[in-house]
Amino acid sequence: MSKIRGRDEHTLAGAYAMDAISAADRDRFERHLAGCQECTQEIASLREATARLGAATAVTPPAGLKERVLAAAAMTRQQAPDAAAADSPARARMRPGSWLRSLAWPGRLAVAAGAVAAVAVLGIAVVFGVANGDMRQQLDRAQASSQQVAAVLTAQDAVMMNGVVAGGGTATIVMSHSRDALVFTAQGLRALPSSAGYELWLIGPSGDRPVGMLPAGGNGMTGPVIASGLRAGDHLALTAEPAGGAVRPTTPMMLDVAV
Amino acid sequence: MEVTGGSEPGNRARQAADPDAGVGAGPDLAAQLSLVARGDAAAFDALFEQVGPSVFGTVRRVIRDPAQSEEVTQDVLLEVWRTAFKFDPARGSAMAWVMTLAHRRAVDRVRSVQKQTERELRTATAEIPYDDVIEAVETSLDRERVRRCLNSLTELQRESVTLAYYNGYTYGQVASLLGVPAGTVKTRMRDALIRLRDCLGVAE
Q1: Mind listing the pLDDT tens digit for each residue in A48-57?
Q2: How far apart are CA A184 and CA A214, in angstroms?
Q3: Which residues, numbered 3 to 22 in chain A, qualify as contacts with chain B under a Cβ-Cβ cut-off of 8 Å?
Q4: Model pTM?
Q5: By CA distance, what is A74's nearest residue in B?
Q6: Burial of B175 (0-12, 13-18, 19+ CB in 10 A)
């Protein structure tokens, strides 16, 4: 059709509400809607009807779909209503103060939110068509790491623990024994001088191993850091060390969690 | 029970603004959506419980292919997560907002696939499929009511709605399938939805 005018525009309301309209007609009708309050109200009311047509087909979603959606959401930055709010990260609420608590999805998502910043950077770089080689490598690494993180978070046996860090801040750990790995994030850690940093350790009967230095986080979030190769009897520990890292802990443990 | 299409605009606006107007939607779905807009993962989990079955059911009804349906369902829910702030309760129920996203995504997917391989035309049927569904009690009430209201339509209205909404055809495709002028189908679609709206809007 070449024009939408007069009575014709109203007859399209039904087809539009059911998406039974070509892309070109849809755009044209939406331009018309922008200036027609009555049509907008009619479309809204017709969509209450089409929503019921949809709801009548409700079926139980396949096993695992919800977990995949929730994990993907945890890695996906939310759009902000306006430019001023665009910088605030999509951050799930933390539940500090409860030591060693095993939680289902909401808890795990809180941890995963720590990955949001990294993934958002990834997304922005892709949007702006970053083709630079170094950047690409960094992005690949970031992506591989976020996939590892997601694998732990979405594991069937994942459990969450919260801990208070001596000196300030809280840590959240999601651990999966089936993957012998855990994901560590921290919130509100006290800032250290630039010559120092936080180092994460696995300490246990089979030896003490450095997991790595925590990356400096923005927005009060640190991590996520993945620690793999967990062994029986391991503890996860956090210490402050020289910025380059130490081979074994040299300062008192600020966090010590049996994993 | 009023089944004519003559509602006044004011009445329509009131219906659209009624948060309970969407079927299968608890009165708190809109509130949940606003928590989701603030990044509340627990609210998003609860929201999935409420809308997931309807979204997946609709998407699968349109797309058919189970793997693609899962993929599109995930896209829809992620869009809800990303853009929850766009939901405006003054412009309709939360359920309608979510289902609009879901249906459009499903249809867009089918049409983009259609461009590559011509899809086999399916037989029009006004029946809501019962074959492979696992239904919850409240959903079966919804389903029964929808079926009753679909049956209150004329045959042409019912076929137009079914082919468009459940099979994802454009009004032009519906017209050629039914051998009826496109203008007639357009009109019937609108009349049918107005009747459905009024039929479904009646309180139990």
Answers
A1: 999 999 999 9
A2: 9
A3: 10-15, 17-22
A4: 0.56
A5: B41
A6: buried
